[in-house]
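ENTRY TYPE: protein
CONTENTS: sequence, structure tokens:
***
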Amino acid sequence: MTSLTYMDSKIVIDKCNTCKGVWLDKNGFDKIIKYLEKKVISESSSEYAKDTLKEFQEIFNGPESKVSELKDFLAVINLFQMRLAVENPWVTQISQNWPIR
């Protein structure tokens, strides 16, 4: 077993080097969900733009399957669009009145 810290949080996860399984302490999953919610809320649109580019590149050379990498890209681009809308509500107003749909 190897102990790892989840991303840049203080949440410790244990990973089996043989079967690649992951184990969490009690309430570990809930802590990860709360950490991710906080990260999603606090990340700026420019950070999402960088994440979007990184995920796009991973479609072609990422460690996961192409389908999995594409799903990751679409999820991040969706978050990017939502962050843009929150930071720039005027864009949402303009797009709602846009003649082309």
